[in-house]
Amino acid sequence: MAYVPGNPVTAVVERIEIQKLREGEHLILGFSIGGGIDQDPLQNPFSEDKTDKGVYVTRITPGGPADKAGLRKGDKIMQVNGWDVTMMTHDQARKRLTKKKEDVVRLLVTRKSLEEAVKKSMGHSYKQ
Amino acid sequence: MDTESTYSGYSYYSGRSRGSHRHGERSRDRHKSRSKDSRSEKSVTINTPPAEPLLGDSAVRGEQVQDDNWGETTTAVTGTSEHSLSQEDIVRITKDLEDSVGLDCRRYFTLTLAVILGLLVFLTPLAFLVLPHLLWPERLQSCGTACEGLFISVAFKLLILLLAVWALFFRPPRAGLPRVFVFRALLAVLVLLFVVSYWLFYGVRILDSQDENYQGIVQYAVSLVDALLFIHYLAIVLLELRQLQPCFSVCVTRSTDGETRHYNLGQLSIQRAALAILEHYYCDFSVHNPALLSASKSRAAKHLAGLKVYNVDGPGNNAASGLAHSQSRAMIAAAARRRDSSHNELYYEEAEHERRVRKRKARLVVAVEEAFTHIKRMQEEEQKKAPGDVMDPREAAQAIFPSMARALQKYLRTTKQQHCHSMESIQQHLAFCITNNMTPKAFLESYLSPGPTLQYSRDHWLARQWTLISEASVTSGLKDGTVFLLKCVDFNLVVTAKKIPYIQMSEEYIDPKSHKFVLRLQSETSV
Lengths: 128, 527
Hints:
The complex is a heterodimer. Chain A is α+β, with helices and mostly antiparallel strands. Chain A contains three helices and eight strands, in the order βββββαββαβα.
């Protein structure tokens, strides 16, 4: 997941669709985010590359909508409803996720295990 | 057996300690090595050196193999061998006297040369001024105001020159160096040439032609004095200023116990650098104590004492060069194979010695503190009132010395310093401490840790017995990597010079307004 500024980023992503849950007058998704271009990337425990200023999932409420949809702790969020989140401030990312008019958020997330799974399957196909 | 026929330090020592086991051990060793030969290819073939060279070596080293206990059982207690007077010492002392007389002759010779040169230099301008008046007074033009002004300037410049030469050159000599001091010799030659050329010019142009222009002559004399002042400036720069800027870092190591210091020196010739280093040596290095080195020597002897190489095949088989090589290889292999427990002995011995020293030190400190409480300084008023049993410092020191003498003697003997301090010097030091209101701890300080050589009596200084050993000429300058030795009677000082590197510095400007900071954020929001 290392990136070089100026070059396009390629990653293996998973599409996750979360239905927002209504609790009183709030719509909640059931996870917490950390990171952003205005944050300190060295404090991020989930990133491989400590200069990665992307937005990561830091906590998942067990049993919440995100958990049910398959989001995992440590996932890096690449897109939210089509909007790119890799170069966003923390607050902008939060706003994108908590739009009151939207009931559903479609995320593209990436994690290390995805890449390894793809590599393994490709490796199998090569052997065959 | 050939071991009994010749006296060697190894067999003496090993005979004393191992006794009858000696033969049995050796035959076992030989047997073991032979069986190992047949089994593995890592064995070393111990072949055929004759016993002669080994015994020859050990006879030379015989007296150094003796360990500490040997000295204590002999009847003649003379301290260490360097201080007992033997035939060699007497010869050496007479040679020293002759040498010092020889050096003094050289010193007086250079002194008389310098005085003659100085007189010549000072009297020349005066001669230039006076000679026309003596030789052709009637034809000489009278001296006007400007000319008389020049007289004053000559007088004062000569006075300044006199003071400057006295300050720079007439100082008590610090040392006698092996070769002539190159810069001084050059300067003396320069001054001589200079004065001779001025005399030549004067003789040809003025004396022969009997010039009447007295003002010109006076100006000529003034120019001579000016030029002499400039030569004196050159002397200051060459002799004093040039070596002030540090250029070399020299590392001085004493060969016997490894004490090392580093000093910064400027551009000096090797002999002047050696002189500077020796002056630092007397102030910085702790006094050389040969009694502390006997332990390591006896350990080294023990390593080799257990092994003896026999020539089984008969003498005269191998060439001489192969002998020593194979013999030493054999000894190294055998030594590596046997299990050596001397490190164990060293550890326990050192711990025991440490404990003993600390115990003696505690007893000494208590004894001295108690002794110091027996005397009290009398105040001024009391002195006038009661002149009873008053003592001066020396008597006071003699009065309290016996109560601490035994403890001090034992402590000095344990730390092997007893030959550095005589009773007289201890009493003198005690009187000195009492006079200056020093505490017992201050009195003991000079005995608890070895101080620099100057602190001890004159016969420890050995200041007249240094030899400079150098591969390069001693008047050549120090260079990077110069190594030379300063040999004294018992030890050497090994000196290595390293050039201080050329430092290239660059600059970086920081605008004071450029110091800006941001907070490191790591917020986590739940959505």
